[in-house]
Specification:
Blueprint: H1 5-44, E1 73-77, E2 83-87, H2 111-126
Antiparallel strand pairs: 1-2
Helix pairs in contact: 1-2
């Protein structure tokens, strides 16, 4: 690929906008993925780290009662690339025993989330018009 001076000048002007759009697309796609993963743990009975939730004393599906907790996740990626997760449900679980984690804890981002983020970055990088 031969780059002319005009093309290099245009890239210099457009690169900040292109990179900002790239980061926004990656952030939006990753936030959508994380939201789905957070919800999925409520129907699968397996937390973010692949551990099964204990059976409720009153029976039924672990982590799924009214579905309110499952649908109350707010997920976004800031302009700096930081992942922000919150749950607005008043029924958010307080993890007293270490067996009811439904948000990332001190273990950090689950490995499969890291892999998905890398896949999204590669796919979006291929789409860049440079």
């Amino acid at each position: 690929m031969h780059l002319t001076r005009q093309r290099l000048d245009a890239l210099g002007r457009d690169l900040p906008r292109i990179l900002q759009e790239y980061r926004r697309r990656v952030g939006d796609l990753f936030a959508e993925y994380v939201r789905g993963e957070l919800q999925k743990q409520h129907t699968s009975g397996v937390n973010l780290y692949g551990e099964r939730y204990p059976r409720p004393k009153r029976g039924g599906q672990p982590m799924l009662d009214t579905g309110e907790l499952m649908h109350a996740y707010l997920v976004r990626v800031t302009d700096t690339g930081r992942l922000v997760i919150d749950n607005t449900s008043p029924h958010t679980i307080v993890d007293h025993d270490g067996r009811h984690t439904h948000l990332p804890d001190e273990r950090g981002m689950p490995e499969k989330w890291k892999q998905k983020l890398a896949q999204i970055r590669v796919a979006e990088a291929r789409k860049l018009k440079l």
